[in-house]
TrEMBL record:
InterPro entries: K_uptake_TrkA, NAD(P)-bd_dom_sf, RCK_C, RCK_C_sf, RCK_N, Trk_Ktr_HKT_K-transport. Transmembrane segments: none annotated. The keyword Ion transport applies. GO terms for cellular component: plasma membrane. Keywords: Ion transport, NAD, Potassium, Potassium transport, Transport. This is Trk system potassium uptake protein TrkA. It comes from the Bacteria. It comes from Eggerthella lenta (Eubacterium lentum). Residues 1-120 form the RCK N-terminal domain.
């Protein structure tokens, strides 16, 4: 599939990485030049990065929107996400448009114009769970849209593991209905999709998707590493 993402922040970068790892083609439109340059370097040219405004049809076209199967707006501004999705949907007839909605009070507006929307706290979990969008990437089926939280946990100095060698993601005994989806290394804005071989070090940020009922257990687990 070909997916165009408007917004190259942490959520946009994470989604691009996941989509690439599952064999999709991706383009990202990012208005901030420094962020766009960083994305180009971080992903080593594995996807197209367009420096421009995702609300501008010109930059959407530069990103290949006419052949896109999905358009995802992930910026922190609801009005930008609404406008960019409407352009993708109405001008370029993209089959599926998904918008991150930061303020719950705006959900109704998006739904009224026929744009699929999710809150920022469930966006990644929802997209991972959509097999048609992410192919082989999946989350336990018991993780439901309305009961899932995306949270960032800073790895503390560890008492039971080597702080120098770190700990493998596969060695972290995550509770049922939770997973470490990505990692943002210490002093680095990059976000990397987590695999079993990914190593966590003190100061790294673990991006965790978890059922609300086990969230406290997950936090306690990290404190006790």
């Amino acid at each position: 599939m070909y997916i165009v993402i408007a917004g190259g922040g942490k959520i946009g970068e994470y989604l691009a990485s996941v989509l690439l790892s599952s064999g999709n083609d991706v383009a990202v439109i990012e208005e901030n030049l420094a962020t766009a340059d960083r994305l180009s370097v971080a992903l080593q040219g594995r996807y197209l990065v367009i420096h421009g405004d995702g609300c501008d049809s010109k930059y959407q076209e530069d990103a290949g929107i006419r052949r896109a199967d999905v358009f995802v707006a992930t910026t922190g501004q609801d009005d930008d996400n609404l406008v960019s999705c409407e352009i993708a949907q109405r001008v370029f007839n993209v089959p599926r448009c998904i918008a991150r909605v930061n303020s719950p009070k705006n959900l109704r507006i998006f739904k009224e114009v026929g744009i699929e929307c999710v809150s920022s706290t469930t966006l990644i979990a929802n997209l991972i769970e959509e097999e048609t969008l992410l192919g082989s990437v999946s989350v336990a089926s018991s993780l439901t849209h309305g009961n899932v939280t995306l949270t960032e946990i800073v790895v503390p100095r560890m008492r039971h593991h080597s702080n120098e060698a770190g700990i493998l993601v596969s060695s972290v005994p995550m509770p049922e209905n939770s997973l470490i989806a990505a990692v943002s290394p210490k002093d680095d804005d990059n976000v990397e999709v987590a695999s079993e071989e990914t190593v966590l070090y003190p100061g790294d940020k673990a991006i965790v998707v978890a059922d609300n009922e086990v969230l406290d257990e997950v936090r306690a687990l990290f404190k006790g590493l």
